[in-house]
């Protein structure tokens, strides 16, 4: 019996059925929250911040239950290292984005957290209710979005950011937009990197839900040491500080992900020539 055949016997047919159940539950959950739970919460006494806090608490508990369901039915396993260090006032949680479930893991483990989400999710019928009631920030790449994100950090909220803007393509290292560093330098008290590794890769961008891997997904989520944004601001003006901080984060995530990659995995990196050319262009434009 080959190794591939052995792995495919990891309850493959059951995991296919369970994955379909999980996607159905997620969609129905979003609709039910929007139609019944959040309207009921608005009837309770309190101001806008109270309603926001209740909505985020609801999502936190709902995502925790959803994670527990996926683990119990055998879709995946997850190991969360250092989760107790998340949730500090003014903390930017900066994570890579290998799969569709990353935001579920982080929102499910960080109470009352804000989050920058894709703008398209604000109009999706399954997700717009939770996003609007939790008052998450939608990434429309406007100056107002950057200002609002920096403001919530200065006001003491915890902000979850995926600086890639989309899921990491297969067999590549994450490439971060510098907007996250710009926000951090303007408003964060501390930046905490969170390295999400999974094996085998699945639920990547454009991949249908039913294309499940031959064995259950195994996530390891590692919370790194806190980073002080002032480290770069003290040494450089703001545009250069953002670039230097982004370079540091790239090196950090590349190192951590390479260390946890399965044997024989090939991870493509951006060409050093392209990186240098981009840096020179940025220096000439001041961005």
TrEMBL record:
Residues 91-199 form the Phospholipid/glycerol acyltransferase domain. GO terms for molecular function: 1-acylglycerol-3-phosphate O-acyltransferase activity. SMART domains: PlsC (SM00563). The keyword Acyltransferase applies. Pathway: Lipid metabolism. One of its GO terms (biological process) is phosphatidic acid biosynthetic process. It comes from the Bacteria. InterPro entries: Plipid/glycerol_acylTrfase (IPR002123). Keywords: Acyltransferase, Membrane, Transferase, Transmembrane, Transmembrane helix. Residues 262-287 are annotated as: Disordered. PANTHER family: 1-ACYL-SN-GLYCEROL-3-PHOSPHATE ACYLTRANSFERASE (PTHR10434), PHOSPHOLIPID_GLYCEROL ACYLTRANSFERASE DOMAIN-CONTAINING PROTEIN (PTHR10434:SF66). This is Phospholipid/glycerol acyltransferase domain-containing protein. It comes from Achromobacter agilis. The lineage of its organism: Bacteria, Pseudomonadati, Pseudomonadota, Betaproteobacteria, Burkholderiales.
């Amino acid at each position: 019996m080959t190794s591939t055949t052995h792995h495919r016997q990891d309850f493959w047919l059951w995991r296919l059925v369970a994955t379909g159940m999980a996607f159905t539950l997620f969609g129905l959950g979003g609709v039910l929250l929007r139609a019944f739970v959040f309207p009921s919460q608005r009837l309770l006494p309190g101001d806008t911040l109270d309603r926001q806090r209740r909505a985020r608490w609801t999502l936190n508990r709902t995502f925790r239950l959803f994670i527990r369901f996926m683990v119990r039915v055998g879709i995946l396993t997850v190991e969360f290292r250092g989760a107790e260090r998340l949730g500090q006032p003014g903390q930017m949680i900066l994570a890579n984005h290998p799969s569709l479930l990353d935001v579920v893991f982080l929102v499910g483990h960080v109470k009352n957290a804000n989050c920058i989400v894709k703008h398209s999710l604000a109009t999706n019928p399954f997700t717009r209710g939770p996003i609007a009631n939790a008052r998450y920030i939608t990434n429309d790449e406007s100056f107002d979005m950057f200002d609002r994100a920096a403001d919530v950090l200065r006001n003491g909220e915890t902000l979850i950011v995926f600086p890639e803007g989309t899921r990491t393509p297969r067999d590549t290292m994450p490439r971060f937009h510098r907007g996250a560093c710009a926000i951090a330098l303007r408003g964060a008290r501390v930046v905490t990197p969170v390295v999400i590794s999974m094996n085998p890769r699945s639920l990547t961008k454009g991949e249908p839900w039913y294309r499940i891997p031959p064995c259950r997904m195994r996530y390891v989520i590692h919370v790194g040491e806190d980073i002080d944004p002032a480290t770069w601001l003290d040494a450089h003006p703001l545009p250069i500080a953002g670039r230097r901080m982004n370079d540091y984060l790239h090196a950090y995530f590349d190192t951590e992900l390479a260390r946890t990659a399965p044997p024989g995995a090939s991870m493509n990196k951006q060409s050093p020539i392209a990186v240098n050319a981009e840096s020179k262009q940025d220096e000439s434009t001041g961005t």
